[in-house]
TrEMBL record:
Binding site for ADP: 25-29, 159, 190-192, 218-220
Cellular localisation: Cytoplasm
Function: Catalyzes the phosphorylation of D-fructose 6-phosphate to fructose 1,6-bisphosphate by ATP, the first committing step of glycolysis.
A GO CC term attached to the entry: 6-phosphofructokinase complex
PROSITE patterns, A to Z: PHOSPHOFRUCTOKINASE
Cofactors required: Mg(2+)
Pathway where it operates: Carbohydrate degradation; glycolysis; D-glyceraldehyde 3-phosphate and glycerone phosphate from D-glucose: step 3/4
Annotated protein name in UniProt: ATP-dependent 6-phosphofructokinase
Phosphofructokinase domain: residues covered: 7-283
Species in which this protein is naturally found: Winogradskyella endarachnes
Length: 328
């Protein structure tokens, strides 16, 4: 027999991402639509442990669809990594009468939810919110599309300076494990080279490629570097290497950092967040638990948490080839 769910909690956990507010709004309004009470849980699992809950209705989430960050705040909770912490969190949920929760976050947040589900047989559902797009089971995570547009905009501006001064810029973008951001913004921003975690270009080939583009008449260059690029050098070390091996270049570095995470979510992220919230709540209502909501070929799909956490999100190899051709 299906357990009837009457109160659902929603939290944002791990790093913030544009579109989290739109997902909270969707969760709250879908609950209201189905006559289910909804509670916002502040500061991720930390707030769950402390019982920092607020009842939300359809009007509590007005005016947030266009806002970056998360109105519920986010946190990393070391206490939730311990059994004692999770027991406390469970007690707080029971005390408030919450009988399921939706966590909006990354794979760490899903691991926490999965363990919680195993320990207390508590219904949980995940919505992937992280700009890196590094989660298996969805072609897009919340915030990824917005981050792409933010970074391309920044690269366009850097290009203005690069071409005015005949400079070479190394632009570091987010992406410790996967090169989705670097690869896409590299193509969209007309980068001469793109360094990603999946492929080791090698320092010599990089210098050779820059020499070639200079010879072909290019007076400025942009090299996009993912944080976790496989050459294993920081952008500053790359600059030093090029400085030493190519005297004729004026090399600069730009680390985009946290600005990539901020800003108003794109139309795509707002729509995706709205769809994910509906799917998460309606899946919980029909008795499903321990899944992450994702999108594949424009269809909403569920991926079991253990697969979402263990699986690896892969870059599109065709994009590598497109990039090679574009930089001729
Ligand atoms: P991001 O992609 O932004 O890093 P994330 O969800 O992966 O997001 P984490 O800091 O890894 O971010 O995880 C968020 C929270 O999830 C942690 O602070 C912790 O409370 C909980 N968590 C992560 N891993 C575990 C685990 N193995 N056991 C219990 N809880 C966990």
């Amino acid at each position: 027999m299906l357990q009837t769910i009457k109160k659902i909690g929603v939290l944002t956990s791990g790093g913030d991402a544009p579109g989290m507010n739109a997902a909270i709004r969707s969760v709250v309004r879908t609950c209201a639509f189905h006559d289910i009470k909804c509670y916002g849980i502040y500061r991720g699992y930390e707030g769950m442990i402390e019982g920092d809950f607020v009842e939300m209705d359809a009007r509590s989430v007005k005016g947030i669809i266009n806002k970056g960050g998360t109105m519920l705040k986010s946190a990393r909770s070391t206490k939730f990594r311990t059994k004692e912490g999770r027991i406390k969190a469970h007690e707080q949920l029971l005390k408030a009468g919450i009988d399921a929760f939706v966590v909006i976050g990354g794979d760490g947040s899903f691991t926490g939810a999965m363990i919680f589900n195993q320990e207390f047989n508590f219904p949980v559902m995940g919505i992937p919110g992280t700009i890196d797009n590094d989660i298996y089971g969805t072609s897009h995570t919340l915030g990824y599309d917005t981050a792409l547009n933010t970074v391309v905009d920044a690269i366009d501006k850097i290009r203005d300076t690069a071409s005015s001064h005949n400079r070479l810029f190394f632009v570091e973008v987010m992406g410790r494990d996967v090169g989705h951001i670097a690869l896409n913004v590299g193509i969209a921003g007309g980068a001469e080279e793109i360094l990603i975690p999946e492929e080791d270009l090698g320092l010599d080939r990089l210098v050779e490629s820059l020499r070639r583009s200079k010879k072909s008449g290019k007076s400025s260059s942009i090299v996009v570097v993912a944080e976790g690029d496989k050459i294993g050098k920081s952008v500053f070390e790359l600059k030093d290497y090029v400085d030493q091996n190519m005297e004729d270049y004026d090399v600069r570095v730009s680390v985009l950092g946290h600005m990539q995470r901020g800003g108003s979510p794109s139309c795509f992220d707002r729509v995706l967040a709205s769809r994910m919230g509906v799917k998460a709540i309606e899946s919980l209502i029909t008795g499903k638990s321990n899944y992450m909501v994702g999108i594949k070929n424009d269809v909403m799909e569920l991926t079991p948490f253990d697969q979402a956490v263990k699986g690896k999100s892969k870059i599109n190899m065709e994009l590598l080839r497109v990039s090679d051709i574009m930089t001729i």
